[in-house]
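Quick review question:
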């Protein structure tokens, strides 16, 4: 898939005319002497920044503007090398070397703890894969019940941090698993194991536990759209996992006990960055690093049937997918097929996506992904804006007011205590101001 900023020439007409009018009206303005402003105008016109004059591309990258805002948003990150460079995807692909490198094992320190996986400052990073293996021991006289989502729900939060503060990716473990199911069309795999652990009462005993979480720094491994430059002395990248509290994963009656031990093995997929000669000067050759890949989820509580609305985070760039899961308390979910309607709305009364009844959307999910996307008893329902034609079907949240999803919950559904909507936004947005 081409980067969202590199639109086909056929789509540039109106944007180019508007750009020329803007330039003529501001010809004497000092504002146009600012490289960040020029980049923004050229991007809006649909031009590929990688094809522009090298002098413009060598300018220092300013603070990011228009990135994701709200929980987990990017505030500042330089995704370009500090020395002379050439952004040349074709030359980079010819000269780079793919590296899948295992990293030191990280111990699991118990429920409610956290683990940090710090990346080396080498190459451009596309993927971080985490592989948890452990042993669950259930004992005592009280009943122990696992909640839906186990074992991926053990990771209550997975964040991609840059310089210790920015969060390009900030989601739950079940959301990462759901994205994997969407991208790979519910591919079968055998590495996830909770052998003998039912989605219900667990008998006393010892059970092996294992699961994989992919942290998708790149939107896809073919184009590399969204990959991050780790080979920069001013950038520190890490993946941080917050492990769930025991009560968020299990219902433990008086007298029951649960213990979990284990480790996380992890591997980083990156691509080597080299240099080429430009005249008498060596320059660093990099791929297209003008786009970030964002993946954020959030929750909204509700206590009764009726109309449920969830506002979307207004991000610059392209919304590639939107997913929801309706939790009906910790131990259950609301079947999306039991809803009256699922809608995507903006501007107060604009409803471009109206699935009434929701079986219309569920059937499309089954067509697109070889079945509904399920994560150990949790159903993620997707509105996918890239699966058919991303150029035609794209949404640009920044330009829309009152952008929200809306769900009609019939009165026949009993809403339990602790019910909430989990909603997920996946996007591609510019890494330049």
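Suggested answer, residue by residue:
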């Amino acid at each position: 898939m081409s980067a969202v900023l590199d639109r086909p020439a056929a789509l540039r007409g109106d944007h180019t005319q508007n750009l020329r009018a803007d330039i003529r009206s501001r010809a004497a303005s000092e504002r146009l002497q600012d490289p960040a402003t020029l980049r923004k105008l050229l991007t809006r016109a649909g031009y590929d920044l990688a094809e522009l004059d090298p002098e413009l591309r060598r300018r220092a990258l300013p603070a990011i503007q228009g990135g994701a805002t709200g929980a987990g948003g990017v505030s500042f990150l330089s995704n370009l090398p500090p020395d002379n460079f050439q952004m040349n995807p074709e030359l980079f692909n010819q000269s780079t070397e793919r590296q899948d490198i295992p990293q030191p094992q990280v111990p699991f320190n118990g429920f409610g703890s956290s683990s940090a996986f710090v990346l080396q400052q080498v190459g451009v990073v596309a993927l971080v894969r985490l592989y948890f293996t452990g042993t669950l021991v259930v004992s005592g006289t009280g009943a122990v019940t696992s909640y839906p989502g186990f074992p991926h729900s053990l990771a209550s939060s997975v964040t991609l941090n840059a310089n210790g503060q920015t969060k390009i990716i900030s989601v739950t473990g079940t959301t990462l698993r759901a994205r994997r199911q969407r991208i790979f069309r519910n591919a079968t795999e055998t590495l996830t194991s909770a052998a003998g652990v039912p989605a219900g009462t667990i008998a006393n005993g010892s059970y092996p536990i294992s699961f994989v979480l992919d942290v998708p720094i790149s939107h896809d491994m073919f184009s590399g759209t969204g990959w991050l430059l780790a080979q920069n002395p001013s950038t520190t990248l890490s993946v941080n996992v917050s492990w769930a509290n025991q009560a968020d994963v299990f219902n433990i009656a008086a007298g029951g006990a649960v213990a979990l031990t284990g480790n996380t093995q992890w591997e980083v997929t990156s691509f080597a960055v080299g240099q080429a000669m430009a005249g008498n000067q060596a320059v660093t050759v990099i791929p297209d690093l003008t786009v970030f890949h964002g993946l954020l989820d959030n929750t909204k509580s509700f206590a009764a049937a009726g109309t449920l609305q969830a506002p979307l985070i207004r991000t610059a760039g392209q919304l590639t997918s939107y997913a929801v899961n309706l939790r009906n308390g910790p131990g259950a979910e609301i079947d999306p097929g039991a809803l009256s309607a699922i809608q995507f709305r903006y501007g107060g009364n604009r409803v471009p996506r109206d699935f009434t009844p929701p079986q219309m959307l569920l059937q499309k999910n089954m067509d697109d992904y070889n079945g509904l996307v399920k994560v150990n008893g949790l159903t993620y329902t997707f509105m996918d804006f890239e699966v058919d034609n991303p150029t035609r079907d794209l949404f640009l949240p920044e330009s829309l007011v009152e952008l929200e999803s809306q769900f009609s919950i019939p009165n026949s559904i009993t809403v339990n205590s602790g019910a909430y909507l989990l909603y997920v936004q996946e996007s591609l947005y510019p890494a330049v101001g």
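Why it works: Helices lie at 13-25, 35-44, 54-57, 89-95, 173-183, 246-249, 359-369, 390-393. Confidence is low (pLDDT under 50) at residues 1-33, 53-75.
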